[in-house]
Design goal:
- This protein has about 525 residues and is mainly β.
- It has three domains: about 190 residues, Cupredoxins -  blue copper proteins (Immunoglobulin-like), CATH 2.60.40.420; about 170 residues, Sandwich (Immunoglobulin-like), CATH 2.60.40.420; about 140 residues, Cupredoxins -  blue copper proteins (Immunoglobulin-like, Sandwich).
- It is about 5% helix and about 40% strand.
- It is built from three helices and 37 strands.
- The strands form eight sheets. It has an eight-stranded mixed beta barrel with strand order 28-29-31-30-35-34-37-32. It has a seven-stranded mixed β-sheet with strand order 18-17-14-20-25-22-23, with no helix packed on it. It has a five-stranded mixed β-sheet with strand order 3-7-13-12-10.
- It is globular.
Length: about 525
């Protein structure tokens, strides 16, 4: 059922059909290497049929970019071509607005950020989650200006999974991705093919992002993308939800099983996704998770009862069974407040939560056909025979332990700090240390050995070795932790008590079965220690 948004957004929800991005498959060269040439270009795209077209940046004129599909072991060379004209105005407006204004569109009386409005079109592409050699990994400073290109080689030597490619320019990644520079990348392999999972038009990629829009002086939406943060909140949280570049779309589906490939492409917002039927009843029993960032799980797992959590850049591979829901309109909603602290929802699923920057919890609608269809697919009990759950007592005896702390400065800036143990008596006079007490009360002192991108490299990891990294979140929010080029598995999480000296640690229950799958997105909850 279409419904009008309340408040100043004035856009009809579920009016526009979901767009599915086109698929790009590489062409083969004589030496058995596959090639693609991908252009970055400006475009004007309607994010909603009631809006004027928005200025965006695209890969190959598509928002999001086309889905690149390859086979495991297929060597691919991509020319990423910056075809954005040098004199092209930057397509978004950035503003820092008063506290409490992120739920609303418009600049809230504040001037636009002139530094952002005059940014030149320089870009660099990173394949997120890919096992990529260093010179092709999209280093943040390896930028290409208008008329230039970079060449990246991808071996695709990893398990079948969903990756994504996006801009990675130093200091402005959040703006370039917000402008539209993101797309999906799928690797296939024989293990996945043997499962005969729903494919073709029954396999749907869903790139979920939040956005805000500028307004005219009288409050009408202009369609121009607005990156609006607040005086006291550096993170962006927008009131509008885009799925594949459309605000609050709907998708017609048959009464059969579908494979949904989800990606949270938002800058900062977490999603805790819940499916509601027409009676607003939670129907998560119709959803089964079969994969994570790193590929297929060992066996299918149920979605958590309070919803599927996706951190920024995190992916999920789902089977959704619409067979018993013929003729219904189902609503996918978000119940995660922002900034997300892993707290339970304060409102029933589907209800706005203005206090937690969730004015419009709706994500999209599924319209199930009333016609019965023959669906022969049976979900196998075993998915990936190569999947192995890590246990500490199964690790090599010579494995290395490392400690990382996530620390927030008073101005809201976050830093990751590499920590090194300080033995008793070795601390310099007045040196700032982090002191941690374990569950037995034993204290250990640590100093920061690196916290900036340009700092000296202190950690050298041997190829093929096993390491255990403990990530301590000393902020008040939940944050994703990304490890590029490798997948990791979360082993356990332990709670910390902030505001005390020393910081105290104690174990908490292990993460869900799905979150123990291979992943390059590790979620560190506020005041939590996560070991991977």
């Amino acid at each position: 059922m279409m419904e009008k948004s309340t408040g100043p957004t004035s856009l009809t929800k579920f009016k526009d059909c979901l767009r599915v991005p086109p698929t790009l498959r590489p062409q083969i060269k004589a030496d058995q290497q596959y090639i693609l040439r991908v252009h970055m270009r400006p475009a004007r795209v309607q994010l909603h049929s009631e809006l004027p077209p928005s200025n965006v940046w695209t890969y190959e004129d598509s928002l999001p970019g086309p889905t690149i599909e390859v086979s495991r072991g297929q060597r691919l060379q991509v020319e990423w071509i910056n075809a954005i004209p040098e004199d092209q105005p930057y397509p978004i407006t950035a503003v820092t607005a008063p506290d409490g204004s992120q739920n609303e569109p418009g600049r809230s009386g504040r001037p636009a950020n002139s530094r952002v409005s005059t940014l030149p079109p320089w870009t660099v592409v990173h394949l997120h989650g890919g096992r990529t050699i260093a010179n092709s990994d999209g280093w943040t400073e390896n930028g290409a200006l208008s008329g230039q290109f970079t060449t990246s080689d991808y071996t695709n030597d990893q398990q079948a999974t969903l990756l994504w490619y996006h801009d990675h320019a130093m200091g402005i990644t959040r703006f370039n991705v917000y402008a539209g520079l993101a797309g999906l990348y799928i690797i296939r392999d024989a293990e996945e093919a043997a499962l005969h999972l729903p494919g073709g038009s029954y396999e749907i990629p869903l790139l979920i992002q939040d956005r805000n829009l500028d307004t005219t002086p009288d409050g009408a939406l202009t369609g121009r993308l607005l990156h609006k943060v607040e005086d006291g909140t550096m993170e962006f949280f927008g009131p509008f939800t885009l799925v594949n570049g459309t605000i609050w779309p709907y998708l017609p589906v048959e009464a059969r099983q579908y494979r949904l490939r989800l990606l949270n492409g938002s800058n900062s917002r977490f999603y805790r996704l819940v499916l509601l039927d027409e009676q607003r009843k939670v129907t998560l029993d119709k959803i089964t998770q079969i994969g994570t960032d790193g590929g297929l799980l060992g066996r299918p797992v149920a979605v958590p009862r309070d919803g599927l959590i996706l951190a920024p850049a995190e992916r999920a591979d789902l089977i959704v069974d619409f067979r018993a829901l013929r003729g219904q309109r189902l609503t996918l909603v978000n119940t995660a407040g922002a900034p997300f602290d892993n707290s339970p929802a304060t409102q029933p699923p589907g209800m706005p939560d203005l206090d937690n920057r969730l004015p419009h919890p709706e994500v999209m609608e599924f319209r199930v056909s009333p016609q019965p269809v023959d669906d022969p697919f049976v979900l196998p009990a075993t998915l990936s025979s190569s999947y192995r759950r890590l246990e500490h007592d199964r690790l090599p005896p010579d494995h290395q332990h490392r400690l990382v702390a996530l620390v927030e400065y008073p101005d809201g800036m976050l830093t990751l700090r590499e920590l090194a143990e300080v033995l008793e008596g070795d601390a310099a006079s007045g040196e700032a240390l982090i002191v941690i007490a374990d569950e037995r009360g034993k204290t250990v002192q640590y100093r920061t050995v690196a916290k900036q991108f340009e700092d000296t490299v202190n950690w050298f990891v041997a190829y093929g070795s096993t390491e255990v990294w403990s990530i301590i979140n000393l902020t008040e929010d939940t944050h994703p932790f990304h490890v590029l080029g490798r997948s990791m598995r979360t082993r356990w999480a332990g709670k910390t008590l902030c505001g005390s000296t020393p910081v105290s640690l104690s174990r908490s229950p292990p993460p869900s079965m799905a979150s123990q799958g291979a992943s390059c997105t590790i979620v560190t909850c506020w005041n939590m220690r996560t070991t991977t």
